[in-house]
């Protein structure tokens, strides 16, 4: 159960180290006590205890069988029922701790001293059986997490010295080429260098639709230090190849793969205490000593009331059993473990109880615009030809210049034009020259071509921009577009516009968040306020704050936090890390492809899917509801049993049955989270 004296959580970025423990022997993998019967030894001991107890009780009704026989069976039952209880109690006391197993042991010994061997054996049987079943139920939640370790295959087919060799994944070296056969698991993080096909990334990112993959442009390049690799090139260990053969270049060692890091972080969840768990730890810290004082006083009740010492002592032991807060100790950790396991299955990494609970209390969310609410890459949105020139002819001239330019928007213009006209052919541009902060100039077919923003042509003078053209540009910019004017010699021949378009799912996701009770959804961006408001209008955020530098985003989160108390910051986990650190919960998008995002965020959406955010918040709220239910069950049972045992209405037997029943009930209630589904999804 829980030890006294828990460490305090030290804030947003630091978590307590001593999570819930049922005993000092617990290990990360769970309550694997071991013994002569393996991991089931505790359960088998509990069953043996019950069998001996039942045999002894049955023999007591047979004439001619000496009572000593039943007594011996009860004493042997004590051994099997109390072995693990005593072992954990002794180990905890040796480390200067104190736990509930000790209270149960004292109660059983006390019953034996009074000659109530039957009730003492019953107590130990039910307690050990409850312990074992509780461990079994908790293990079900842990297995959902442990299943992650089975995602990556143990071996890989690697090409060495021109030959295909099967090696353990731990032996793979950076830069080596591995062969991925059709419908097989991918053994390492890497980039595709040969072959095309789809990959099922659901085990890592939670994406339901397979993702198409194709080879990188430069297979010889070293991608190990690349911070951002396009999804179409990158593959993850543990994902499943489709029906084609892929050749993949290894960019992460097995211990550093995304799945390995995910497993490590999820396994650390139980060490990080939630606010409710901190409350229950503090409650136990004062409650357990209070119970001991009460039990001690009840032992000497015979001095002030007319009853024998044996009756006072028995009552005290009954209260000791009734007041042991076993269900309380396990109520929150079981729910946190189940919630985190379900989130991981859905492609969301939640780093412990604190962010799991805090996520469900959010009333406001701040979103970074670029790459979070938008696609993160500009697209050609409008082409307006002028001076009787055809659209295709205008794009031929623009593409001729832009494909020779190194401006960030050039690639988007060329790509958009080629998508619009598949067979577009452009003339050769010469004398291409970039004009910093303005645009680009070149010669095409002997004509001087200028492509750039309004400032470029205002600087050039020569009559400036026609009024009707200014109005068109102004309207496009109000809609959130970045505009570029095209001039051939002295004549404007067109206007093109680009925009970082909103994600298709953004509008529906924001509606789902509103349905979940998120009152404020603020978009933060470095773009000008006009662009920010245009995007905000399209997707439905409540407010848009533009012209923000990274340090301004931090102040924006602080301001939001003062008015709303519980605020999340959603971004890429890299550029937004300072703002995330100041929020109640930092949430990173597309974290599967970013080491930094995995480290900095409290919650990581492994796939680049915004729609997993409502799922995570809904799961958090369900988790908080179950945690509250568990608290009411555990505290309510104790609140009822204590007066019943004090007054003598309930004896040790019924007390331990109800006590262990409540412990199992809260664990089973928590396991319901493993089956959580987002009710908002149709």
Automatic annotation (TrEMBL):
<keyword id="KW-1278">Translocase</keyword>
<dbReference type="Pfam" id="PF00702">
    <property type="entry name" value="Hydrolase"/>
</dbReference>
<feature type="transmembrane region" description="Helical">
    <location>
        <begin position="631"/>
        <end position="650"/>
    </location>
</feature>
<dbReference type="InterPro" id="IPR051014">
    <property type="entry name" value="Cation_Transport_ATPase_IB"/>
</dbReference>
<feature type="transmembrane region" description="Helical">
    <location>
        <begin position="43"/>
        <end position="62"/>
    </location>
</feature>
<dbReference type="InterPro" id="IPR008250">
    <property type="entry name" value="ATPase_P-typ_transduc_dom_A_sf"/>
</dbReference>
<dbReference type="GO" id="GO:0005886">
    <property type="term" value="C:plasma membrane"/>
</dbReference>
<dbReference type="InterPro" id="IPR059000">
    <property type="entry name" value="ATPase_P-type_domA"/>
</dbReference>
<keyword id="KW-0406">Ion transport</keyword>
<comment type="similarity">
    <text>Belongs to the cation transport ATPase (P-type) (TC 3.A.3) family. Type IB subfamily.</text>
</comment>
<keyword id="KW-0813">Transport</keyword>
<feature type="domain" description="P-type ATPase A">
    <location>
        <begin position="151"/>
        <end position="266"/>
    </location>
</feature>
<dbReference type="InterPro" id="IPR023214">
    <property type="entry name" value="HAD_sf"/>
</dbReference>
<dbReference type="InterPro" id="IPR023299">
    <property type="entry name" value="ATPase_P-typ_cyto_dom_N"/>
</dbReference>
<dbReference type="GO" id="GO:0016463">
    <property type="term" value="F:P-type zinc transporter activity"/>
</dbReference>
<dbReference type="InterPro" id="IPR018303">
    <property type="entry name" value="ATPase_P-typ_P_site"/>
</dbReference>
<dbReference type="InterPro" id="IPR023298">
    <property type="entry name" value="ATPase_P-typ_TM_dom_sf"/>
</dbReference>
<keyword id="KW-1133">Transmembrane helix</keyword>
<keyword id="KW-0479">Metal-binding</keyword>
<dbReference type="GO" id="GO:0005524">
    <property type="term" value="F:ATP binding"/>
</dbReference>
<keyword id="KW-0472">Membrane</keyword>
<keyword id="KW-1003">Cell membrane</keyword>
<dbReference type="InterPro" id="IPR036412">
    <property type="entry name" value="HAD-like_sf"/>
</dbReference>
<dbReference type="InterPro" id="IPR001757">
    <property type="entry name" value="P_typ_ATPase"/>
</dbReference>
<keyword id="KW-0547">Nucleotide-binding</keyword>
<feature type="transmembrane region" description="Helical">
    <location>
        <begin position="317"/>
        <end position="341"/>
    </location>
</feature>
<feature type="transmembrane region" description="Helical">
    <location>
        <begin position="68"/>
        <end position="86"/>
    </location>
</feature>
<dbReference type="Pfam" id="PF00122">
    <property type="entry name" value="E1-E2_ATPase"/>
</dbReference>
<dbReference type="GO" id="GO:0046872">
    <property type="term" value="F:metal ion binding"/>
</dbReference>
<dbReference type="InterPro" id="IPR044492">
    <property type="entry name" value="P_typ_ATPase_HD_dom"/>
</dbReference>
<feature type="region of interest" description="Disordered">
    <location>
        <begin position="1"/>
        <end position="31"/>
    </location>
</feature>
<keyword id="KW-0812">Transmembrane</keyword>
<keyword id="KW-0067">ATP-binding</keyword>
<dbReference type="InterPro" id="IPR027256">
    <property type="entry name" value="P-typ_ATPase_IB"/>
</dbReference>
<feature type="transmembrane region" description="Helical">
    <location>
        <begin position="286"/>
        <end position="305"/>
    </location>
</feature>
<protein>
    <recommendedName>
        <fullName>P-type Zn(2+) transporter</fullName>
        <ecNumber>7.2.2.12</ecNumber>
    </recommendedName>
</protein>
<feature type="transmembrane region" description="Helical">
    <location>
        <begin position="656"/>
        <end position="675"/>
    </location>
</feature>
<dbReference type="GO" id="GO:0016887">
    <property type="term" value="F:ATP hydrolysis activity"/>
</dbReference>
